Every structure is written in C-alpha cells, then in structure tokens.
Amino acid sequence: MELTTARLQLREFIADDWHAVYAYQSDARYLRYYPWDGVTPAQAQAFVTRFIAQQQAAPRTRFQLAITLRTTRELIGNCGVRMDAAEAVEGDIGYELAPWQWGHGYATEAAATMVEFGFGALGLHRIWAECIADNTASAHVLEKLGMRREGLLRQNRWMKGRWWDTALYAILVDEWRAAHRAPTTDRKLECGGIIL
C-alpha cells in the first residue's frame, strides 16, 4: 500500500527502516512526551517488525505507514489509522515525526492523508486521536485536520515523575465531507494504484 501527497510518500515499512526509526526515536526532543527515556536498536527493530506483521493481518485493521520525503525517499516518521476490528465504524490515528523535520507541515500532510484514507477507503464514521495536553504542536495538527477537542482526561498518565493530562479529539465523516467539498488539485491520493 502506498499513499502519495504533494511532498510525501506514505509506504509500508520494510525491515531496514529500523535505522531511521532509531535515529529519530533517540532524539531527546522526540522523547519529551513518551514515558521511556530512550530506545535501543533492538527496540527500534521490534517497533518496525510489529508494523510489518500488521501488513499480513487478514482482515487488516492497522495501517501504520512510514512517512518518506518524495524527493529524497528519506524516512522521517510514521502515521496510521487503526481499528479494533475489521467491522469497526471508528478508528484512531497516530503519528510521529523526526524532530529535525518539525515545523514544515509534514505531520499535518501525512495525518490528513490517513484521515482521508480512513473515511474513504475504510468507510469509517468517526476518527479520533489523543495527545498529551501539553503537546501543543500535536494538538495543532489535530485541529488543522478539522478535529474537535471532545474532552480532557485530567492527570491520567504518569510518566517522567509527574501526572499529565490527555486531550481527546475526533472528527465525524459528515464533518470531514463538508470541509472537503471543493476538489483539490494539488494532492493525489493513491492506494495500490487506485486514485481515491
């Protein structure tokens, strides 16, 4: 599976991708909103292996793709939509990006593509996401997708020696359709050679 945008190619993970994943997951800026303090090469390999295994699931319910730059093919993160079951009518999205690629709009571009895939190809009714409330950059990405903040779970995560709040966001298919009525000319969404 491959999804293409103006600047990005979202593709399936392959085994050698762990090197790039290890590089960005080792960055202190990346680690700020995660409970762990670092990753090992073995953990990065296991992370990638999990996504490769999800590709073989039948029926497939998890579509976590590597984010690469179209011009250089450099892997700069991952983004995906996940469902609890094949017949699910809702799914969640998650994404992460190499810190040295922050500020270019890549997370929004990739996540918007996965939302489009979730509503279009997967036929979902609702897509939700959560983020640490202090992670305002991630919250801005979700808001740019047209997601509404549905709630705040106060002090529900313990990590790095303190309690953190989690913000919940979601968008419904009708809201997404209303915001995307005008045809786009600068983006092409491809899935297995099929333009959606």
Task: Give a short synopsis of this structure.
With 196 residues, this protein is of the alpha+beta class. The chain is 30% helix and 33% strand.
Describe it:
The longest helix is centred in the first third of the chain and has 15 residues, at 41-55. Helix 1 (18-25) crosses helix 3 (41-55). The chain is built from six helices and ten strands; from the N terminus they run E-E-H-H-H-E-E-E-H-E-H-E-E-H-E-E. An eight-stranded mixed beta sheet has the order 1-2-3-4-5-6-8-7, sandwiched between helices. The chain has a two-stranded antiparallel sheet with strand order 9-10. The protein starts with a strand and ends with a strand. It is an alpha+beta fold and 196 residues long. The protein has helices spanning 18-25, 28-31, 41-55, 106-120, 136-144, 173-179, and strands at 2-4, 8-11, 62-69, 75-82, 90-97, 126-132, 148-159, 162-172, 190-191, 194-195. Helices cover 30% and strands 33% of the residues. It has a single domain, classed as Aminopeptidase (3-Layer(aba) Sandwich), CATH 3.40.630.
Which tags fit this structure?
196 residues, alpha+beta, Aminopeptidase, 8-stranded mixed beta sheet, 6 helices, 30% helix, disordered C terminus
Helix content: 25-40%
Q: CATH fold name, please?
A: Aminopeptidase
Could you state the order of secondary-structure elements as H and E? EEHHHEEEHEHEEHEE
Query: What's the architecture, going by CATH?
Result: 3-Layer(aba) Sandwich
> Widest sheet: strand order?
1-2-3-4-5-6-8-7
Helix vs. strand class: alpha+beta
In whole angstroms, the N-to-C terminal distance is 13 Å
Helix segment tally:
6
- Characterize the largest beta sheet: strand count, sense, and whether it forms a barrel: 8 strands, mixed
Strand content: 25-35%
Mean pLDDT: 91
The backbone outline, from C-alpha atoms, is globular
Number of strands: 10
* Rg, Cα atoms, Å: 16 Å
Specify the CATH class.
Alpha Beta
Q: CATH homologous superfamily - what is it?
A: Gcn5-related N-acetyltransferase (GNAT)
Query: What are the segments in which pLDDT stays under 50 over at least 5 consecutive residues?
Result: 182-196
